Each structure stands twice: as structure tokens, then as C-alpha cells.
């Protein structure tokens, strides 16, 4: 009888802890709602494809510069498999079972690699992170752990303007591994 009471007590404790985590997640979403606002909609025309689609895991989005301040608004806080593509108009993250995230080119502040994001820690340069500004003015980091990390240098190298001559330097891969790439005139 005493053992049964212990089991029932632990089950009630476990359910209460799960309930408190749910209440905490909802409270976080409520506090962040005004800072996050509405995400940009995916436009009908995306522009020229600049970086081939990369499959991976959408790790999450955090409020910059904190790598652990996970966003809980909408479905931004839920991990899912995804495909990320870069177009002349911006970056598209198509997530399985969740809404697509469109990051307009003018909103991108940096594309870099990091060791972790949103509580997920990996090996050196394991997560591809895009820092961008929401229409509300809040800067966030969106992270994807690619299935093939060999494509990361294609993502982090600065894009040449459309009317500029191609770069002759072969040091792009050295710059890409630094994790801090400047884009659109601002550092990550």
C-alpha cells in the first residue's frame, strides 16, 4: 500500500511539473508577443535562387543577442525538419508541420555559424544562424542545423552585388569559418 501511494504521489508531481512548464511557456509567449509582432509574409516572387536549398533541423529563434532567449510566440519555438534556401529577395525557411519563415534581404544583419542556439549546443560551427530584424524592430537569431555542414561556407560568404564583377579572392572559406561575417553594413 505504501508503495502504491509513492507511485501515485510521483505521478501527480510529474503531471504538475509538466503543467507548470506549459504555463511558463504560455507566459513567455505572452511577454514576447509585442516585441515579436507579425512576421513578414512569404512573397509570391522570391527572386533569383542564390544558394541551393539545404535540408536540416530548424533549431529555433531567439531574441538577439542572447543565444538562449528562445522565442515562444506562435510556432517559432518548435523544432522541426526544414529546408532553407536563399534568394535575391531573402531567405526562406520551409518547416515541416509549421509555417514558413520569410527573412527579407533588407532585414538580414548577418549570416554566421555558431556552436549553439536556443538551448541546443553542438560542435564548433554546428548551427547556421541568421540574424535579422523583424518589422517590429526587434533583432532575432534564427538557427538551422544543416544535414550537410559542407554547404555552410556558401551561406556565410558575403554576397556580391548583382552588378559587381566576380571576386577573384579564394579566401572566402577562411572568412566563412570565423563565425562573424559582415553583411548589409553591420556586424553580427
Please outline the major beta sheet. Answer: 7 strands, antiparallel
- Physical arrangement of strands within the biggest beta sheet: 4-3-2-1-9-8-5
Average pLDDT for all residues = 81
How many beta strands in the DSSP annotation? 9
Q: How is the quaternary structure best described? A: single chain
The amount of beta strand, in percent, is 25-35%
Question: Overall 3D geometry?
Answer: elongated
Helix content: 10-25%
The chain-level structural class is: alpha+beta
- For the CA atoms, what is the radius of gyration? 20 Å
Q: Number of DSSP helices?
A: 3
Uncertain segments of ≥5 residues (pLDDT<50)?
162-188
The topology string of helices and strands comes to HEEEEEEEEEHH
State the separation between the terminal residues, measured CA to CA: 60 Å
Amino acid at each position: 500500500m505504501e508503495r502504491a501511494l509513492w507511485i501515485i504521489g510521483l505521478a501527480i508531481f510529474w503531471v504538475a511539473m509538466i503543467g507548470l512548464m506549459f504555463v511558463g511557456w504560455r507566459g513567455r509567449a505572452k511577454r514576447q508577443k509585442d516585441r515579436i509582432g507579425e512576421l513578414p509574409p512569404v512573397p509570391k516572387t522570391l527572386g533569383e535562387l542564390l544558394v541551393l536549398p539545404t535540408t536540416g533541423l530548424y533549431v529555433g529563434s531567439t531574441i538577439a543577442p542572447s543565444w538562449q532567449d528562445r522565442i515562444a510566440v506562435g510556432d517559432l519555438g518548435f523544432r522541426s525538419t526544414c529546408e532553407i534556401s536563399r534568394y535575391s529577395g531573402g531567405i526562406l525557411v520551409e518547416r515541416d508541420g509549421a509555417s514558413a519563415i520569410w527573412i527579407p534581404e533588407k532585414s538580414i544583419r548577418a549570416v554566421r555559424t555558431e556552436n549553439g542556439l536556443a538551448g541546443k549546443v553542438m560542435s564548433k560551427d554546428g548551427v547556421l544562424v541568421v540574424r535579422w530584424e523583424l518589422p517590429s524592430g526587434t533583432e532575432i537569431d534564427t538557427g538551422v542545423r544543416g544535414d550537410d555542414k559542407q554547404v555552410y561556407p556558401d551561406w556565410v560568404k558575403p554576397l556580391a552585388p548583382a552588378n559587381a564583377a566576380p571576386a577573384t579572392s579564394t579566401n572566402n572559406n577562411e572568412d566563412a569559418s570565423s563565425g562573424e561575417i559582415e553583411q548589409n553594413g553591420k556586424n553580427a
